[in-house]
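Figure caption, in words: inputs first, then the predicted bound structure.
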Amino acid sequence: MCGIVGYVGEREAGKILVSGLRKLEYRGYDSAGIAMIVDGAIDVRRAVGKLDNLQAVLDADPLLGTTGIGHTRWATHGRPSEQNAHPHRAGDVVVIHNGIIENYVALREALVAAGAEIASETDTEVISHLIDAELRKGGDILTATQAAIARLDGSFAICVMSAKEPGRLITAKNSTPVVVGLGEGENFVASDVPALLDYTRDVVFLEDGEMADLTAGSVEVMDFHGNRRDRKPRRITWDPVTAQKGGYKHFLLKEIHEQPQSIIDTTRGRIAPETGEVLLPELEPLLAGIKQIERVVIVACGTAWHAGLVGKFIIERFARIPTEVDYGSEFRYRDPLIGPETLMIVVSQSGETADTLAAVEEARGKGAKVLAICNVVESSIARKADAVVYTHAGPEISVASTKAFTTQLTAFYLIGLELGAKSGRLDPALEAECIDALVQLPNLIGEALKSEEQIIRTARMMAPAQDVLYLARGINYPIALEGALKLKEISYIHAEGYPAGEMKHGPIALIDENVPVVVLLPNDEVYGKTLSNLKEVESRGGKIVAITDYADAELTKISESIITVPRTSTSLMPVLLTIPLQLLAYYVAVERGTDVDQPRNLAKSVTVE
Ligand code: M6R
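Bound structure (5-amino-5-deoxy-1-O-phosphono-D-mannitol present):
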């Protein structure tokens, strides 16, 4: 999971490559590098760590040229080091790569036996050597790349340049994304659209098995055998400003505050203003192909998996269809029982998560229909699924997922209401209540965001903790898991989410005066039961942080901090309870001085197993 960029044209390539890489740093930031052809020879600059380190190298030792490639890396094979940083050169060839070459060990042995000198520990370097070896046999960079690709097993988005053919780039895609940007007298390659938006809005998303041959004046798309593909460009209408921090200190805070708008965008055009009915034409072809949905299986990873856990409650409550939830990384290795009567729903912000993508392939292979909830339009999962409900949350730059999560929940409400209405199993009163709550949701989130001052005070109290417990029940239990994950990933504090009633079966042993316990306590049918669990916490000295729409005298007495959210339909409380948890994790992380937007060891989109 890396970011790749390429430029061919008349302008100074270095600036364009570095600015593109900045927009892709969310994909990984272990090292970065660029390569250009200077006076007929390949020249490379690389640096370990974030892009600023590469910029410092370039400031000290500039690289000037009008064709180049650049890379920002998330290490898979080979530790983060300058030697392992891309681009990787062999003879007259230089390559950048995102993905994993599964047969690289065998290829490397063969190359070494043939006399190649391998300089890095990466799987990528074999690609440059294979292409260089092919070039030596004759042909050009295109045919040499095609011949090399034929020997690769695994996933790759590559961009290739040869000193013998300056002014030409070759890119190819298998299982990891490549987008080609079309300019006037210049053309571009990138892993993702934001890298291109400052230069062009006309793009071609390569499909798996496709490659492109770029010069300043031409782009030809073809399959790996050279058969031309007629691909119509798409015009991207995203505003590049949405990819900026917009005045906030961190992308994460900006994205938390964007949630009222992103939920408006998710629901836009999907609730009929007069009748209040849900409109999801995306589902029609899918549902027409399934006689009766007997079961729903939701598959996702990380935060998206937590959205799936809430999705189970929603689908079972609204449509009364038995639903189970699995991790992308587990699903396909358990020989899952899934077939044409099962609807699979996959959830992925990026649409590129390798484990989720593999689950889609597994399910489709067994005849199940797949509905995807994705944010990134035209992403790999979106293209593989039978139908997609896009969340339209806009680019999410911060590694920790926030607006993607609440828009995924929103998509589940829409899907649950639609499945419930179509099956005739949804109680009309519940339907009306939930649709009304959905319409009100953006305003209510705006209200929930107003608790920031209280949250900052609470974050100061929590920041020194080593462990934090998150408790909730029922449909809000997944939100406890999500709150714990947010805290872990950005503040590096150990945190665990537990069903409140389970605490007495083990985790209670952890509780003392140093362990804050964050509890989600909406005024629902289990309020009293959860309050009893909190008394067990209080009597062991634990510090209670209550997030609630209703604080009675008892809760007020035993809590160190109470953060209130507005009240809504019980089914939609998970969204409102999420907001303070996101802010709490954010302010604890700020208090601890961590790298909020790019936490250590993490990357935004996990395109490897
Ligand atoms: O792009 P996806 O939604 O498929 O990503 C899934 C997870 O990798 C992602 O949600 C991850 O857990 C986030 N860093 C959580 O904030």
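The chain has 19 helices and 24 strands.
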